[in-house]
Structures are given as structure tokens and as C-alpha cells.
Amino acid sequence: MSAEAPNEGALGRRRGRARLDLRRLGRAALSGSGPRGRLPDAIDHVAKVHRAHHPGADLDILRRAYLLAESSHRGQTRKSGEPYITHPLAVTLILAELGAETTTLTASLLHDTVEDTEVTLDQVRCQFGEEVRFLVDGVTKLEKVDYGAAAEPETFRKMLVATGNDVRVMSIKLADRLHNMRTLGVMRPEKQARIAKVTRDVLIPLAERLGVQALKTELEDLVFAILHPEEYARTRDLVLAHADRPDPLVETAERVRAVLREAGIAADVLVRSRHFVSVHRVRLKRGRVTGSDLGRLLVLVAEDADCYAVLGELHTCFTPFVSEFKDFIAVPKFNLYQSLHTAVAGPSGEAAQVLIRTHQMHRVAEAGVVALGNPYATPETPDAADGERVDPTRPGWLSRLLEWQRATPDPDTFWTSLRDELAQDREVTVFRADGGTIGLPAGSSCVDAAYAQYGDGAHSCIGARVNGRLATLSTVLRDGDTLQLLMSRDTASGPSPDWLEHARTPAARIAIERWLATHPVPDPVAALAPPTPDRPCPPPRSTAPAARWPVVVTADGTDLAATSVRLAGCCTPVPPDEVTGFAVRGGAVTVHRAHCPAVGRMVTSGRHPVEVRWSSPESAGAFDYRVTLLAESFSRPHLLADLTEAIAGEGAAVISAAVEPPHEQRVRHTYTLQLADAAQLPELIRAMRRVPGVYDVERAGRAFAGARL
To answer: Residue 705 needs a FRET pair 20 to 30 A away by CA distance; which of 77, 117, 243, 674 works?
Structure first.
């Protein structure tokens, strides 16, 4: 399916976005520049849109930029046959609609001149200044003749570094990719798919992180049409099927207007259509789509306080769906987004989603960093110490990208790590004990936080306190946690290979892998051989005391007496689990359940497993066993007391317990228990499942049947 389909058809009309008439622009471009000093007809529409956002904008620099671009690209055509100048004009209009300031528009008109014409960066600097030169250079691709297969990843690396200095570089790139995606239908299907995949994996996540929702949503629909044509067609037909039916949101919007008028709150109440990918997600989540699911109500007010006043009126005069309420004004998203989200019952009882925000919040929600104008301009009233400029466009995720890319010279590793980093769709903020904060992707552990705070200095981290309590480095951090990292005085110490199991961020993984590469793990057989007078066995590096377990380590068919065998905390194996082991520094072996997710990751990374087995049942009886169980239940009073009573009734001792805050009336518990006999485990799990309200109990390392998405 052509990438142009969702834009030129129903989608373009639903979104109501202005579009350039490329044929008209082509004719205007071919007709010449017109009288000297007069704004060319081809750029007249861009100028009007720009002046609507910036009434005092200097249009002469846009005129000069257009004349240089038009003369440089003259004679060049796009694959569609249109004059090439229509592309920079279309990119510039996209940015003008978002409210971009004049410097950005100037650079967007020139963004392909250095790459595709004889114009040089020095010429751009001489005629338009250093800022425009930097922006044009930032979006200029590296030549394949120089970089070969590495040209694309290295181009993105170059753009990211430039974005770290001026976020407007990525704004131009996103608008450039949007117009290319709109006109992708003239290319071969295989090239469409390749470009769409890069857009999905890299550009759309970057648009999300920069808060440019207007570009992100359209890019999502264009990618959806190319990579999933059948699902796209089904969603389009679903939307069209409701087009001739009464829209229930229209009636709800009128009722909301009446309520707010009566309350004396000035507000604009609009029905805002969902884009196709959003409708598709609703269908996958609920199994069906109603008329109310095809859009949302958008309430725009003047002040922050009015947002909460509107919320109060809606929850008083309508039946609210409390589980749908989210406050992104008090706690903004990491991409600048602010809004109140709620849902109320419509005339037929169906949920109507409502977004409440100020007009300024709406501009930022649509245009993200573009709505900030020029964040590098000297403010009229400087509020930064020593005259330093304030840069609100350097969020934590961008700083992390810039940090780890420096340590990743290999293009393939950089490209893979970039996609992995951008795949994380949520951030958490952790408060440091010294008063600072650390921004991390959701699901990050103390290991990730250590490398985010200390870089390579995190190699000597030996533990952590989370919310004042001692915690392992594998502990997953949650939004708002307070973290104190415990560091060893031995600066020569280094990370265990086990840390890779808990590292989620590329920065942590790259630093750990780099250290391990220069400090290789000893050969498993040599490491586990019995000590001799001239070769004493070195103690294992571990933050916990070594323990002996009923495990025999076997190498090359010979049983070896391991000086230290550790059972992995991520899956806590017990007999008769099928197990496998991995040698770690210091001659120790960490034993995992064979199906533990960490095993697959270590094998994929090149680690070689060591064959291990449980010792005989007779000798096993002399040992205690630890196991970690995860329980999910419905929230109710006295649940924790009933669960611990059931555990004690089976003769198990609680080593540690953690209870997550309730989420949608559900609670997740994590227990580390000590058993005298591994045979107790099945009956213990059954006893915990019999506790009223508990609907699942599983070993750590296995997915819940009812796990949250």
C-alpha cells in the first residue's frame, strides 16, 4: 500500500492539516523568483503561516534562503517528477505549522543544499550565520562512498551529537522524514519497508521523546500503512464505517460546554479524532471499538487552576471512571507533556476520554520542543547564574544517549544500542541521597543507576540502599525511589558478569562488557580444580558470604569440588529444578534454572555454560534451600498477615518480603523463603494460592498467567 494513502484520503481530512499543493509550488518555482526584493510566490504560503505564529518575523532571510535553495536545486527532480525544491518547501511548511522560529525555517529551506548541490557550509555561514550553518550541517548525511554500510548509523550518531548542542537539528530531521514518508509511494516496496522500519525504530521514538506529537502520530500512521497493510485497511474500514453514524462524543461535548458555562469557566471544548494507530491499539486492548473510542474530548482553558476546576465539574456532574484519571500537570512526562486525563460516562454509558490542558500546554503537546522557539536565544531577563543560557531541551534520555555513544565506536553496536534505548517508552526519576536526581528508563536496576551516576567509577559499587533499606544491585527502581549507592574503597575491584543480567541501559552494559573484556573470566575447569599449595584458590568477589550448596559441578565428565557455588538470586533454583551454571571471576560458579531468562542472554552474549547437577538426595537433606516466590492478589485488609501465616504453617521462614503499591485493586508480593526440604515447595505454593484473594503464585523468573501489560 502506498505511504500516501492515509494522508491524501480520509486521514488527511480527519486531521485537518494544511498541505502544500506540490504541483502549484512546482509551477511557481519554475516561473522564477519574481521582482527583486519581493517574496516569491512559492514561499508565500509558508510566510503567512509563519507570521501567524510570529507576527514580527523577518521574512527577508526566508526569501534569501529560498532563492539560494531554488537556484541550487534547479534542474533536480524528485522520483515523483516534481521539482526538487518542492521538498524543502514542504518540510519548511511542516515546521512553520508547528510554530518553529525563523532560524529553523531558514535552515530547513537549505537542509539539502550542502548534501545534494555545490553549496558549501562556508557559503551558508557567510550568508546566514553560524546557527543556520550548524543546523544544516547537523542534518546533512554522511556519504556512503566514505562510510559504506556504516553511513546510516554514523549519520544518526552525527545527528544525535548535533542535537545535543541544538535540539532544532532533530526537529528538521523529523519534518524531513515526515514529508519523505508522505511521498514514499513512488519507491519500490522493499525500500518503502526499509525506510518505514528505521522510522518506526528510531525516528518515531525520537519524536515521542521530543514531544512533537503532531509529527509522531502521522509518522505512526504512515509506517502502519506500509508495514501492516492488512491491519491498516481493517482499521481504516472501521473508522469509515462509523463516519455516517451519529458521533456520541458530539453530544457529550455539548453537555460539557453547558456544565462549564454554568460554572463560569471559559473553555473551548473540541472533539479530537484519534489517529489510526491509536484506534488500532484500542481495538487490540478492548476487542471492539465504539463510536466514543474513535476520538477524545479536548478541553482548553487559560490557566493551570482552571484545569483542576474543569476536572472538579466533570467529576461532579458526570459519572467518572476513576481508574482513567492521570495528572500530568503536577507530574509532567519526560517529554514536556502536561495535561489532565480522565474519562466520564456518555449518554449511553460509554466512556468518553477527556484531555484537559491550557492553550500553552496544548501547543507544547502538539509541537514539543519546537514550541519553545529558540531555546538558545539570550533571554530578555537572564535568570541563569553568570549569564549562562538555560537549555530546557537537554532531558536525561538525551544526555544518556550522548554519554554511551562516545564509548561505542563500532557502528553496528551503536545502531543496536540506539534502538534498544529508544524502545524504552517510559522514564522513572530516582532521588539520590545527596539531593540530586537520576533519570532512567522504566525497569532499570541499581546497576543502571550506578553507571548513570558514576560512569566507569561504578565498577567499585558493592551495594545500595533503596528508600533507606539495604537492597541488592539487581533491585528494580521505581519512580520516586530514594537511592544511596555503596562504593568500595578498593578502586581495583570490578563488576561481576552477573551484573549484565540486571543492566538494562546501554551505558551500563557497554561499560560492564568493556571491563570484562579486559579482565577475562578464568577457564571454568582451571578455576574449579582443587587448590594446590602453589595455587591457592582465590576468594570469590561477592557482596554476600559464600555458601555451600548440594550441587556438584562437572567439567569434561569429571566431578570437581567447587569452593563456592552460588544459587542465582534471579531464579533461586532448588532440587529437582533442571540447572545450568556459569563460571564467574574468583573461581565461583553461579547456578541458574535452565529456563531462567538470564541464561539465554548470557549464552547469546558468548558466555559458555558449565554443566552442573544436584547432589544425591541423601546428602541434600543436610542443606537449607532458598526460593523466591511472586504472588498476585486482589487488594484487601489483612492480606499480608494471612499470607505470612500460610507460609509459616508450611514450615518456611521468611528471609525478605516486598509488597508493591496497589495497582487497579491488584497487589504483587515478592517473598524470599528458606525451606528445610525442597520437597516442601509444591505444597507451600498450593497453601499460598488457597489464601482468599490470591489468584496466582509462581517462582521468580516465570511469567504470571495474568501479568500486566
So the answer is: 674
On whether the CB atoms of residues 4 and 185 are closer than 8 A, the answer is yes
Share of the chain above pLDDT 70, in %: 79
Rounded Cα distance, 439 and 209, in Å: 13
Strands 565-567 and 588-593: parallel
Cell of 345: 460516562
Backbone angles phi, psi at 430, to 5 degrees: -110, 135
Please identify which of the residues 21, 41, 97, 116 carries the catalytic annotation.
116
* Among the listed residues 299, 289, 234, 233, the one whose alpha carbon sits nearest the alpha carbon of residue 263: 299
The catalytic residue among 4, 21, 82, 115 is 115
Catalytic-residue membership of 391: no
Residue-wise over 666-698: b if at least 16 C-beta within 10 A, else e? ebbbebbbebeebebbeebbebbeebebbeebb
Measured CA to CA in angstroms, residue 678 lies from 265, 572, 625 at distances of 66, 12, 6
pTM assigned to the model: 0.63
Exposed/middle/buried for residue 53 (C-beta within 10 Å: 0-12, 13-18, 19+):
middle
Q: Are 373 and 101 in contact (CB under 8 A)?
A: yes
Contact in structure between 346 and 251 (CB atoms under 8 Å): yes
> Residue 654: which of 666, 639, 670, 668 has the closest Cα?
670
Q: How many residues does the chain have?
A: 709
> 374: pLDDT confidence band, cut at 50, 70 and 90?
confident
What's the pLDDT tens digit per position in 413-440?
A: 777 777 777 776 677 778 888 877 787 8
| Interstrand relation of 551-555 and 565-567 (parallel, antiparallel or unpaired) | unpaired
441: left (phi over 0), alpha (psi -120 to 50) or beta: beta
Mind giving me the DSSP string for 266-310? --EEEEEEPPHHHHHHHHHHHSS--GGGGEEEEEEESSHHHHHHH
DSSP H/E element including 582: strand 579-584
Q: Which residues pair with 487 in a beta bridge?
A: 461
- Would you say 450 and 473 are in contact if contact means Cβ atoms under 8 Å apart? yes
Check: CB of residue 127 under 8 Å from CB of residue 64.
yes
Radius of gyration of the chain (CA): 30
pLDDT band at 682 (very low <50, low <70, confident <90, very high): confident
Number of Cβ atoms within 10 Å of the Cβ of 122: 10
pLDDT of residue 701 exceeding 70, the answer is no
CA distance 299 to 340: 10
317-345 residues labelled b (16+ CB within 10 A) or e (exposed): bbebeeeeeeebbeeebbbbbbbbbbbbe
Q: How far apart are CA 496 and CA 462, in angstroms?
A: 10
Is beta strand 427-432 parallel, antiparallel or unpaired with respect to 351-358? unpaired
Beta-ladder partners of 461: 487
What does pLDDT average to over the chain? 79
According to the model, what pLDDT value does residue 67 have?
Answer: 94
Q: Is the dihedral of CA 61, 63, 64, 69 positive or negative?
A: positive
* The pLDDT of residue 628: 83
3-state secondary structure of 53: helix
Per-residue pLDDT of 340-359, as tens digits, reads 999 999 888 888 999 999 99
Please report the pLDDT score of residue 28 as a whole number: 52
C-alpha span between 216 and 234 (Å, rounded): 21
Nearest Cα to 447, choosing from 430, 463, 470? 463
Neighbours of 532 (CB within 10 A): 8
Question: Strand 579-584 and strand 666-675: pairing?
Answer: unpaired
* 119 phi, psi to nearest 5 deg: -65, 140
The question of whether 115 is a catalytic residue gets the answer yes
Q: Specify the 3-state DSSP secondary structure of 558.
A: strand
